[in-house]
Recover the amino acids of this structure.
């Protein structure tokens, strides 16, 4: 059997962006600070600079690691006003939610300048927030438990954004 | 400002596969049963039927949810023997690891019949396991903390596999 020579290279150079990421991640009040913190760590690795969180949410440094160092965490009381503002600044507001009009993330052509709007673990994206979104995307599910954890789904969406914009 | 009408549809029909997934997820002894359990839940949602875990690893039902119901969890003492067997059964062994020869997951054309080999949170994929892999893939990182959590990286790879094989 042929053997290839793969040698671990743990701390290699990271990928460079041609321009700063124009992706903002917007989280509603989450039930779990663990989920929020996992999102922050993944966002940091993806080169995201700006994460919006709401209410009493708190990023746990041990989980987010130094993802926090590269990211500006903005605390807001609720999502709606800041989302309206970002929409006026020409960000496309994309909700990660199963809705009557959602596209499969597998096929969605994303816009560079976008806000990824995350849903609460239990209640998803609020109705009033859904109303101002430009589009909603969903991740196909094939088996039990038929719904991804909120942080897991967000991580998949972050991956897809980076795949479409590997250089920023 | 135009308003679209998005209505939440939480428990809608799941996506159908034309054939069972030929993806096996193989985890070494992990430091964290939480990470393993997150992987199992995501794998369940992706339609994966078979997850290999090692040593004292234990799936936490509360996190994996009923992802466990659709999945056969195989416990092995170590990864190497079962990976050798799967390779003989014509599975492509793909390690998720930064190595001297790894391809970007953004560009890697995956094979349907594959084993996704996960790394331990601290030590990654063992040298002896690396030696029998067919290929290694890595996820580009752009910012601090410059390395994804092991479960997060696995989730991204599961997403990419489903994206490439949306119908199984």
């Amino acid at each position: 059997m042929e053997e290839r020579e793969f040698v671990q290279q743990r701390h290699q150079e990271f990928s460079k962006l041609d321009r700063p990421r124009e992706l903002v991640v917007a989280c509603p009040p989450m039930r779990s600070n663990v989920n929020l913190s996992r999102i922050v760590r993944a966002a940091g690795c993806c080169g995201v600079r700006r994460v919006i969180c709401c209410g009493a949410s708190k990023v746990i440094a041990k989980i987010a690691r130094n993802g926090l160092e590269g990211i500006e965490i903005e605390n807001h009381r609720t999502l709606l006003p800041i989302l309206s503002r970002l929409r006026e600044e020409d960000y496309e507001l994309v909700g990660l939610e199963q809705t009557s009009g959602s596209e499969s993330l597998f096929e969605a052509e994303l816009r560079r300048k976008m806000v990824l709007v995350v849903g609460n673990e239990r209640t998803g994206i609020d109705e009033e927030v859904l109303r101002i979104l430009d589009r909603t995307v969903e991740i196909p599910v094939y088996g039990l438990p038929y719904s991804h954890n909120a942080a897991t789904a967000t991580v998949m969406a972050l991956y897809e954004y980076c795949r479409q914009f590997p250089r920023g």
Summary: The first strand of chain B starts at residue 23 and ends at 26.
